[in-house]
Write a structure and sequence with these properties.
- The chain has about 90 residues and is an alpha+beta fold.
- About 20% of the residues lie in helices and about 25% in strands.
- The protein has 1 helix and 2 strands.
- The chain has one helix spanning about 30-50; strands at about 5-15, 15-25.
- The radius of gyration is 23 Å and the shape is flat.
Length: about 90
C-alpha cells in the first residue's frame, strides 16, 4: 500500500466526466485524521439527505440538541464562585 495523504481540492463534473482540481496535498500526520474525515462525511451525508439548509428554523425542533440545531448552545450558568480576595484586586 502507498502513502496516505490529505488532498484538498474541488470535484466537478465537466462534459459528463468527473474532474478534480487539486489545491493542496500533504502526508497524513495522524491516522485519526482519516477516521475524522470518515465521520465528517457521515455528518455531511445526513445533513444533505435531510435537506437541513432548505428547512425553516421552526421545522428543526427535532434537531434542537444536535449539531444540526439552528440555535446556539444553551448558556450554562457558572457554578464557580468568585474568590473573595485576589492578589490583583485593590481591596
Amino acid at each position: 500500500m502507498g502513502d496516505v495523504v490529505i488532498a484538498v481540492g474541488k470535484l466537478r463534473i465537466f462534459n459528463n466526466r468527473l474532474a478534480c482540481t487539486l489545491l493542496g496535498m500533504r502526508d497524513v500526520d495522524n491516522e485519526k485524521e482519516v477516521e475524522l474525515h470518515g465521520l465528517e462525511c457521515k455528518v455531511a451525508q445526513i445533513f444533505y439527505r435531510k435537506q437541513i439548509l432548505l428547512r425553516q428554523p421552526s421545522e428543526l425542533s427535532e434537531y434542537e440538541h444536535t449539531i444540526f440545531s439552528p440555535y446556539p448552545p444553551e448558556q450554562r450558568s457558572s457554578t464557580r464562585q468568585t474568590p473573595k480576595s485576589s492578589r490583583y484586586s485593590n481591596h
